[in-house]
Backbone:
């Protein structure tokens, strides 16, 4: 089968062609054509954004429990005390800082 005959068959009917019988270059072109047609069809039917939203939702739903487990394991080993990133100031310390800031700016309340 000649190259032009293969190209003509893949242009007209990309899903009716057996990829294993084609030359490597024509095989790649046919695959990319199939991919483009499938993505275009999904886009025009409005399903592409629906699939994207579903993918984002499942990713977030799976990441939140994973991060909770990771932070609890790190806390069990005392990592938060070593790095000091998770230490929040107490409310009385915040109140003291706030009063100090107010006292530095007299006349502004």
Residues:
């Amino acid at each position: 089968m000649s190259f032009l005959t293969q190209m003509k068959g893949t242009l007209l009917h990309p899903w009716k062609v057996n990829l294993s019988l084609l030359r490597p270059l024509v095989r790649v072109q046919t695959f990319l054509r199939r991919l483009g047609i499938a993505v275009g069809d999904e886009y025009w039917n409005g399903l592409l954004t629906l699939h994207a939203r579903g993918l984002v939702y499942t990713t977030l739903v799976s990441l939140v429990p994973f991060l909770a487990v990771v932070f609890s394991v790190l806390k069990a080993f005392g990592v938060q005390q070593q790095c000091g990133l998770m230490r929040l100031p107490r409310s009385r310390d915040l109140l003291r800082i706030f009063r100090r800031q107010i006292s530095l700016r007299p006349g502004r309340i």
Notes: Helices lie at 3-12, 24-45, 47-76, 79-83, 91-104. The mean pLDDT is 78. Residues 54-109 form one domain.
